[in-house]
Every structure is written in structure tokens, then in C-alpha cells.
Amino acid sequence: KMIIGLKDSLKLIGIIIVSFFLVFVCTFFLNFYLDAKSIEHLLATENEKILYNAQMSTAKFTCSISGGFLALIAVVMLVFYLKLYINSHCSQLGVLKAMGYSDCKISLRFCVFGVSVFIGTALGFCVGFAYMPKIYESLTVDGLPEVAINFHPVLLIVLVFMPTVFYSALSVLFAFYQLKRPVLDMLLGKTVKEKKEKIVRKDKDRSFLSEIFVGTLKTKKLLSFFIAFACFCFSAMVQMGFSMKQLSSEEMGIMILLIGIVLAVTTLFMATTTVLKNNVKNVSIMKAFGYSMKEYSFAVLSGYNIFAFVGFAVGTVYQYVLLKLMVGVIYKDVAAVTSYNFDIPLFFITLAVFTVLYEGIMAFYAFRMSRISVKEVMTEN
């Protein structure tokens, strides 16, 4: 039988966290939207109707933007981890195929990856519901009737069970697609990319360090995306969190701030851990040849710097456009909400904190590289 070990399960912590935040945010906003429908008939004045419409638009806007974005990220993460798992267990899966197990039968076992989504969504729903009184209090506007909290079973189905079924099915289908390769190649541990890498060797004049630098970026494009995404989250959510304290409420600002920091740090650590794991042999060779820690850490890690700062820049633009749109469209008729302008001091403070955090994490992984045992790597096979 194919067994997913503890280490493989722990790699799914990123999906659990993304699923948690996705459902956590959507739970109280959608619940508020459904509960607020019950007070619509109590609105008497035009001003009350304007405030009410702004509330409802905020709930729908936030769910569609944050929920849709996080759902897409969860899909990308799941595919990424499935690919990593299949590549690292290629020979074991090849043995199962050689024993007569069909691709369909093997891929059906990958539905267990949907458990990580269930854990994240279930926790997000429970915590979101527990946190709901504070959110309702922050969303309630003076002059409008108080909105009572009710439990809506349909949300439990839509936010917990449906995503679990969807991501389980996605895991099975993607695994089935990945298993469509010759048994002999799988027994030898050959991945699809290994066949293509032979064609790539064109620049023979490159130094060894340059070869590692370019090769790391070329073969691991998805890792570049995750590092950029982590920095995007930090930039967008931190700046948005501080701005929301003025535009909405302190609770909403703190919540957005914490979500951004946790999501960014978790994703960055996981992506960089994968970079290090994929370059253990390269680092050991460089150490054996006498390269310094500065040289081999530069070759392996520095190529991702541009993606990190591009992600930060895109996150800055994203949060500005989003808040400008929210204030200009949703709250345009609400006198209590002032116009939103780009906060330059906040941008430079966030940039400084981000630079220290990012460089600190890179220094940590450079230190981990220095602890790699050349002897163990060279004798493991």
C-alpha cells in the first residue's frame, strides 16, 4: 500500500493555513450578509439605505476578492505539493504500477490530500463563527438596527464540505495525469523534467556558480511564484491592515495584518525550504570544491531576490487600487468615510520591515546550507 508519511503530511501545512484564512474571512462576511437581509425591511430613511447597501457591498466585495484569490492560491499549492510528492516517490509508485495496480486505482488514494483542506476549512469555519460577535460589532453602523447572529447550515456545506470534495477530486485527477508515464522511467526515478534538461545545456562557457544560479531559477519556476506571492501578501496585507484601522475598524485592521504576516512568513519558509532541499547536492559539491558560504548561498538563493521585491511592489499597487476602489465605489455616498490616499511613510516603514525579515530568512537558510554534510550527501547512494 502507498502510505503518506508524517513528513509528507506536514508539507501540506501551507494548504491548511490558506484554507483556514479563506473560510475564516468568508464565514463571518457571508454570515453577516445573510443575517443582514433580515433587517432590510426595517430601513426607513434614505441615509439608512445608503449605509445598509455599503455594508452589504463590503461583505460581497471582500468575499469575492479575498476568497477567490485565496482559493486560487490553494489550488496552485495543492498541485505544487502533489507534483513534489509524486516526483519524490516516483520509484515507489512505479513499483505499484509494475505489480499491476492501474493508474486509476493508485490515483484514487491521493484523495487523502483533501484532508488537509478539510482541516483548514473546518478550523476556519469554527474560529470564524467564534470570532463573529466582534466582527458584527465592527460592521454595525450607528443608526442601523442591530444584526442578530444566526447559524446557516448552507455555509457549512459551501465553505467546508464542498471545498474538501473539490480539492480531493483535483488531487485524484492531477495524480492520474502525472502517473501517465512509462513504468520503467518511474522505477528509475526519472521525472518528466529530467528528460528535457538534456536539451537545455547550451551555454558551456558559464562558470559553475552561474550554472547553478540560472539552473535553479529555470527548473523551479513555481518556487519563484511562491516567493513572490509571500512578499505580495506581506506588502498588501500589512499596508492594508494599517489603512483599514482608519477606514473601517481596529479589529478589521488587526485581522488583515495578522493574516498577511502569517500567510507570508509560512509561504516564504516553505518555498525556501524546498529550494534548499532541491539543491542539497549542488551545495555539497560547491562546498567540496572550496566555495565559501557567501558564494554558494548567492548561487542558490539570490536569484529569487528580484521576484521577492517585484511581489512586494505588486502587493503595494494591489492594496492601493483595492482600497481606492472600495472607498470610491462602495462608500462614495457615505459621508462618514473619507477619501483614501496612498500612505508614503507607511510604505517605507513596511519596506524596511520586509527587507529585514526577508534578508533574515535568507541568512537563516544560508546558515542551514553551511550545516550540510558533504560526506553524508556523497555516500547516501
Secondary structure elements and their pairing?
Blueprint: H1 6-10, H2 13-36, H3 46-88, H4 90-98, H5 103-108, H6 114-130, H7 132-139, H8 153-178, H9 183-187, H10 192-200, H11 208-219, H12 221-247, H13 250-278, H14 280-288, H15 293-301, H16 305-330, H17 344-370, H18 374-379
Helix pairs in contact: 2-3, 2-6, 2-13, 3-8, 6-8, 11-15, 12-13, 12-16, 12-17, 13-17, 15-17
Describe this entry's structure for a reader.
With 381 residues, this protein is mostly helical. It is built from 18 helices and no strands. α6 runs antiparallel to α8, α11 packs parallel to α15 (293-301) and α12 (221-247) packs antiparallel against α17 (344-370). The chain is flat. Residues 194-205 have low confidence and may be disordered.
Sum up the structure in keywords.
18 helices; 381 residues; flat; mainly alpha
Q: How many extended strands?
A: 0
- The percent range for strand residues is under 5%
- Helix/strand-derived category reads mainly alpha
Q: Biggest β-sheet: count, sense, barrel?
A: none
The shape is flat
List low-pLDDT spans: 194-205
Give a summary of the structure in a few sentences.
This protein is mainly α.
